[in-house]
Amino acid sequence: MICKVGIGYDVHQLVVGRKLYLGGVLIPHTHGLEGHSDADALIHAICDALLGAVGEVDIGHFFPNTDPRWKDVRSTVFLEEISKVIALRKGKIVNIDSTLIAEAPKIAPHIKEMKQQVANALNVRTEVVGIKATTNETMGFVGRREGIAAMAVASVYMPEDQEY
Ligand code: MG
After folding, report:
1. Above pLDDT 70, what percent of the chain?
2. Does any domain span residue 95?
3. How far is the CA of 13 from the centre of ligand 1 (A)?
4. Could you give the angle at the alpha carbon of 93 between the alpha carbons of 90 and 95, nearest 5°?
């Protein structure tokens, strides 16, 4: 087996009239993230990191926002689908680490549950999933609370004879 690493980044706009889902957790807030699915930026970044690690195309190609199948779908479904792709390729997720960048709301109280949601969807132990959070120190679009960004890395053990 060889260890492959992938990177992911995502950002969604904060708007009124949408629910805020981050890491699979519904968080009470004045605004939610705009998008075709539930717009869970953290999960989308994790999806791209996992897809990158196994040499796949990005989440936008995998789950197109023109496909009605993914309209308003919970992003944990994307993780479940990617977990199947990794299993088909006989891969094993080593670890995931991620950072949410949001000015508000407070993320820390929800991190434990987010780790559980992500781990459950991927069928891995919660210790495999790292989630951290920071603000943007009031600077830029995140600082102005116009959006929330997330970045992630993932490492996956893959059979050495796998063709990419
Ligand atoms: Mg996204």
Report:
1. 98
2. yes
3. 10
4. 165
User: Pairing mode, if any, of strands 25-27 and 20-22?
Assistant: antiparallel
Domain CATH for 152 = 3.30.1330.50
Q: How many domains would you assign to the chain?
A: 1
Q: How many Å from the N-terminal Cα to the C-terminal Cα in the chain?
A: 14
The pLDDT, as a whole number, for residue 40 is: 98
Starting at the edge strand found earlier in the chain, the sheet holding 92-101 runs: 32-33, 2-15, 147-158, 92-101, 129-134
pLDDT at 65: 86
* Boundaries of domain holding 25: 2-158
The mean pLDDT value for 137-152 works out to 98
CA 39 to centroid of ligand 1, rounded, Å = 5
What is the distance in A from the centroid of ligand 1 to the CA of 41?
Answer: 5
Mean pLDDT of 80-87: 96
DSSP 91: -
Contact 24, 45 (CB under 8 A): no
Residue 36: how many other CB atoms lie within 10 Å: 16
Residue 64 Cα to ligand 1 midpoint, Å, equals 10
Distance 87 CA to ligand 1 centre (A): 23
pLDDT band for position 36 (50/70/90)? very high
